[in-house]
Amino acid sequence: MTKAFSVILPFYRGDQPEHLNAAIQSLVDQSLRAEEIVLIQDGPVPAKLSDLVAKWQSEYPEIKIVVLEENQGLSQALNAGIKAARHEWLARMDADDICLPDRFEKQWALIEEQPELAILGSWIEEYDEQMEKPLSTRRLPEKHTDIISYARWRCPFNHMTVMYRKSVVIALGMYADYGAVGDDYELWARFLMKGYRSTNIQEVLVKARTGNAMFSKRRRGWKYLKHELQEIRDLYRLGLLKPWHFVFHVTLKSVVRLAPPFMVKWIYKGIRKTS
Q1: Of 203, 209, 24, 7, nearest in space to 102 by CA
Q2: Is pLDDT of 132 > 70?
Q3: How many structural domains are present in the chain?
Q4: Which of 130, 146, 151, 164 gives a 20 to 30 Å CA spacing to 201?
Q5: Domain of 241?
Q6: Which of 10, 136, 22, 129 is CA-nearest to residue 76?
Q7: Pairing relation of β-strands 197-209 and 98-99?
Q8: What confidence tens digit (pLDDT) does each residue in 162-177 have?
Q9: Hey, which residues does 67 pair with through a beta bridge?
Q10: What is the pTM of this model?
């Protein structure tokens, strides 16, 4: 069975074919499938990736491929996918994660039950690259008011689990571009500060490869921190952060991006324990 919503899934040259294949497989194996799956190719990719998505498209006509001639980064790829998608409700998915078979069935049931919703997510189970052993579960609050309170300290949605209304995302200006930084937090702040209703389903619906991404060189250093500080500034300007939240975020991000890797691992283990 299918329903009238679209999945948007960007991929780029750095993605592993076997991971992307598993991600797409988890979409077509859903108990409730999307009427449209939009794969956004962010710049040139190796033949193994382009051949893989072409094979999937030949087998599943609901798959649409949007090609960006040059690599533009996640935010611009997502914005291209949002524009190309034909349905009002859009579901996010990453190229290296796996949806549980009933993800969309459970999310769509809640959308029908609560028509006032503009955005909803769920918990995730975090894994290493091989997805052999779960590292932790990232739990997030359910109630809208609790989500706002949580958002002042940490990102309130697991991006790869989110479903949102296309018309609202476009009205809010879509994703901002902060370079290599994940740009979803600031978009969620705009949802919340404009009063759009939200929730998180209180169970795991996606298995996410996180592994050692927090400690990689491309996520460290002053250049990466500078982009994050720009995002924190915008969270403050939107009114989500009070001065003490602002100081907390600047301090935490500075330590995480500039401190030695062993210290970052220690901090992140503490964060996982509180999730």
Answers
A1: 203
A2: yes
A3: 2
A4: 130
A5: 216-275
A6: 10
A7: antiparallel
A8: 999 999 999 999 999 8
A9: 41
A10: 0.91
